[in-house]
Specification:
This protein is α+β, with helices and mostly antiparallel strands and 171 residues long. The chain is 44% helix and 25% strand. It contains 4 helices and 8 strands; from the N terminus they run αβαββββαβββα. 19% of the residues are buried.
Length: 171
């Protein structure tokens, strides 16, 4: 074999190696997450700078306690096999009863918003929630965007509540 052939192979090998290294580096920011696994969701929350405490409810189902912007929330998992392989999850939070929390109030919010929905339960508590499928994998960037959407919509709901409370006081 000639020296020229060895040099070409070396160059081709180095190019392939650098290309593979670049592909790995490029994939890192968009690493795939299996959100069916509550522990992976908790780790992704922590990586995004949020607290994430894994717990189980009275039925033995997994959920995560967290907070964003000073507001506590949970991520609840549904249709799980034990504590893993869940088919969906929900960001949720609630407010204690207040006279402004009426069906008309909830309808006004829900008709004007697409993602975060609210409901008033029989005890007058206001429940907010955003549902997501866990089927398939998603990128870390997409999950971070979901958390940001929840935080943004939660802040928007807090403003909506304050505006309605202020309007009720002025009547």
């Amino acid at each position: 074999m000639s020296g020229g052939m060895n040099v070409r192979r070396l160059i081709a090998s180095l190019a392939l190696f650098w290309g593979m290294a670049s592909a790995v580096d490029a994939a890192t920011p968009d690493k795939l997450l299996d959100l069916r696994q509550p522990s992976i969701v908790a780790n992704a929350l922590r990586e995004a700078g949020y607290k994430a405490e894994m717990k189980t409810n009275a039925k033995g189902e997994p959920y995560i306690e967290s907070s964003a912007g000073g507001s506590s929330f949970t991520i609840e998992f549904y249709h799980c096999t034990g504590l893993v392989d869940c088919s969906s999850y929900q960001f949720a939070s609630w407010y204690k009863p207040d006279p402004v929390f009426t069906l008309a109030f909830a309808n006004e919010w829900n008709l004007g918003r697409r993602f975060l929905k609210i409901a008033v339960d029989k005890d007058g508590n206001l429940n907010e929630y955003m549902d997501f499928t866990a089927t398939g994998k998603t990128t870390y960037a997409n999950f971070a965007d979901i958390v940001d959407w929840y935080q943004t919509m939660d802040a928007s709901l807090a403003k909506f509540i304050t505006e309605h409370k202020d309007a009720a006081k002025s009547q």
